[in-house]
Amino acid sequence: MSENITEVFVGIDVSKSTLDVGLEPSGEAFQINYESAEVDKLITRLQQALPTLIVMEATGGLEVQAATAMAAKGLPVAVVNPRQVRDFAKATGRLAKTDKIDAAVLAAFAKAIRPQVRPLKDEETQALDDLVDRRRQLIGMRVQEVLRLGTAVTKPMQQSLKKHIKWLDRQIDDVDGDLKRRLRESDVWRAKEDLLKSIPGIGSVTTMTLLSKCPELGQLNRREIAALVGVAPMANDSGKHRGKRSIWGGRAEIRAVLYMAALTAMRCNAPIKAFAERLKKAGKLPKVVIVACMRKLLTIMNAMLKNNSPWMPEMG
Question: Is the pTM of this model over 0.85?
Fold first, then answer.
């Protein structure tokens, strides 16, 4: 006998001091303070609800603590690009904007779009769990030292406490940085993938290859990224001799997926198609045209990740 199991989708709107939580299809909504003890209670509550998917937006790092804590406990959490969520809200007529409404929109987005979440590997989950625990320990130690500083009378004791608090601050910053890096390198982090897959002609293989094999994407300028991948034409001149420009070096695996992506984009991506046609009319060889389209796609993707901006036709 089969049972009707209702899927649960959760949207979490993150701010500096609070988390607003919305659930679909129940419509339940509530708010908690954004602190470790409250996040732990929320995780227990969500584990009992058995959610199909939890979605929160990338908000400049504010989401890291909650997202890593949930991922470390095996919850299916996805961090997505906020522009995609706002576009979804506009398309569904949800124009008002409050923290409670945003949480409900995120839950509806999770239910309708279902950004894919792949479970973390066991060692990744354990590493995240250890780091979350360590952060909690460091925060606790810092609280105790600050309390002691408030009652310290002698100057040597005050100096010792201040020195230790500064050290703890550095340790907490290091752990936060490690958590952010691990989150953004994991499959939980969907914002970069969502941005790249918005480009016509760019699919999952190209996206995952670029994100895994080219972590510099979005951090360099257009010339640097083209040279790094190996799609920048290199001069071959000596004296009065002007040799044929060619590409060499770089990362062959990335060039291979860019080649296939460029062929697709030349057919279905209007700006890239128009760019290729201009080069053909100028008498450029087919191979030169393809490489130029590869380079253009790469620099577009680099700019999108650097500026956290979705695909727009004028980018071509």
Answer: no
